[in-house]
Amino acid sequence: MSLFSPELPQQHVCKEEEMLHFCETCGKGFSTRTNLFIHKTIHTGEKPYSCEICGKDFRTSYESLVHMRTHTGERPYTCNTCGKKFSTNSDLSKHTRIHTGEKPYSCTICGEKFSFRPTLKIHLSTHTGEEPYVCETCGKGLKSSKGLLIHMRTHTGEKPYLCNTCGKRFNNKSALTRHTRTHTGEKPYSCETCGKRFSENSVLKRHTRIHTGERPYPCNICGKRFYRTTHLKQHIRVHSGEKQSLFYLPELGSC
Description:
Layout: H1 7-18, E1 21-22, E2 29-30, H2 33-44, E3 49-50, E4 57-58, H3 61-72, E5 77-78, E6 85-86, H4 89-100, E7 105-106, E8 113-114, H5 117-128, E9 133-134, E10 141-142, H6 145-156, E11 161-162, E12 169-170, H7 173-184, E13 189-190, E14 197-198, H8 201-212, E15 217-218, E16 225-226, H9 229-240
Antiparallel strand pairs: 1-2, 3-4, 5-6, 7-8, 9-10, 11-12, 13-14, 15-16
């Protein structure tokens, strides 16, 4: 269709006319009275839908329905790739990015891409240095509320994640996941250069430095660079006069 088609102005008018209901508080327009009613609860704080089991209140019937699934255990959305089930379609959509590798969220500073918005938000703090979540016990700053929750368990000693194989407990789910691979032998992270496989992504990243020659850890005294922080710490003892470990072999470039 031509940009100068007489049909275009008519389409534009239709879109304008669809917005028949407007919020008196902020002026936002909606195509239906129902959508306007739901929107207004943002301003009023009204939550007319209550859970019959726990009494929690919600703004919409859909939110109430999704919440009920936490009680019933219903998970009607299934991943076609791995069979994992989810309580909402949005959770399923986010999960499928693990299989597809889709990374729709980009860092505006360095361009690195991420599959999930919260991961991008945490990454941005590496540029800004922001640590807005502070531990009330020791004052340590954390980049995310989840990080603060996990950190608090170092004070409380809570370890809610249990290994079903050996009974060992962990204070966060990712630590349990890494641990279970010691039993299963699973190594899901593969080096694109040599094909070597690893059980942890962080170990893979260290390994790739053998191929790229990257040495991201510099000595502030002499400028020499190292593959790993442990090698840097060992090297600093050269300047401080401390005795080095016999196992320090940085020139090998081990990962």
